[in-house]
């Protein structure tokens, strides 16, 4: 069983690092075919003449991979990883052969004023490859439950 | 052939509306199984006891569907839909049976100072269902090529 972290268990500056996942050319093309069918995400030759200069994953694929890493091996938040939104940037595109991990840090913790059973945290999460190139940076608002009184 | 819009063809306030797509329970579970395997995205019964109150699509699924709508029937930008990042919010989750469309508006147009062949635009895009419920709002920076001199 994973440990479950409630709002009370978190502090600003707390860091988490996920496991890793290899991004294959096949996975890039499969995601793109379903959700972002543009030449630079589907065909290496076609991608060479674009500003990507070669096959590049959809930014939304990088986002989806990041979510999977967070769910499977990121911060074990009680109630799961529930985001209301955030700011996302892709400084460089994910490439075939990238081995990605997520490094997260708690930046803010705010108990809800109207809902005593929860709070909101802000996490900054960087998705990096094996050479520490940043493929995605996201500052994300997450809803985290407070520890129920009976078990406090 | 789709018309291709260069930076010079765009103006602030210009609007685009995509086609529509139906989001099925199967599609929600398939995306979640691959990228966001949490109970409230995978199982209607398990979702009932969570803050979602029933099966809800991953926000990243809504984002991916939005991208697909933009690529297939959104603004026909020359060079494709190439985003560097943006701000994303999910005011309500996508539900099974939602028929989604994207309504976009150009908010800013900025020619690049360093690269004379392109510029950056900011688009605000709302993803709505058949009842005009907003499932996603994104303010996105996109790179758009300028019209090549020879064809100006």
Task: Write up this protein.
2 copies of one chain form a homodimer. Chain A is an alpha+beta fold. Chain A has helices at 25-35, 39-42, 44-48, 59-73, and strands at 15-22, 83-89, 99-111, 118-128, 134-145. Chain A has a 5-stranded antiparallel beta sheet with strand order 1-3-4-5-2, covered by helices on one side. In chain A, strand 4 (118-128) and strand 5 form a beta hairpin. Chains A and B meet through helix 1, helix 4 and strand 2 of A and helix 1, helix 4 and strand 2 of B.
Task: Kindly summarize this structure in a few lines.
The first copy, chain A, is an alpha+beta fold and 152 residues long. Chain A is built from four helices and five strands. The radius of gyration of chain A is 18 Å and the shape is elongated.
For this entry, give a set of tags.
5 strands; homodimer; alpha+beta; 152 residues; Thiol Ester Dehydrase, Chain A
């Amino acid at each position: 069983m994973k440990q479950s972290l409630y709002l009370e268990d978190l502090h600003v500056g707390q860091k988490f690092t996920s496991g890793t996942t290899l991004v294959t050319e096949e996975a890039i093309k499969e995601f793109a075919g379903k959700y972002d069918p543009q030449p630079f995400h589907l065909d290496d030759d076609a991608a060479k003449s674009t500003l990507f200069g070669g096959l590049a994953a959809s930014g939304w694929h990088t986002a989806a991979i990041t979510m999977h890493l967070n769910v499977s091996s990121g911060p074990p938040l009680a109630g799961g990883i529930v985001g209301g939104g955030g700011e996302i940037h892709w400084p460089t595109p994910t490439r075939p052969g990238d081995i990605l991990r997520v490094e997260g840090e708690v930046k803010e913790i705010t108990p809800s004023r109207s809902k005593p059973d929860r709070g909101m945290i802000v996490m900054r999460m960087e998705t990096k490859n094996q050479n520490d190139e940043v493929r995605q940076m996201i500052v994300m608002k997450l809803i985290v439950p407070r520890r129920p009184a009976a078990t406090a």
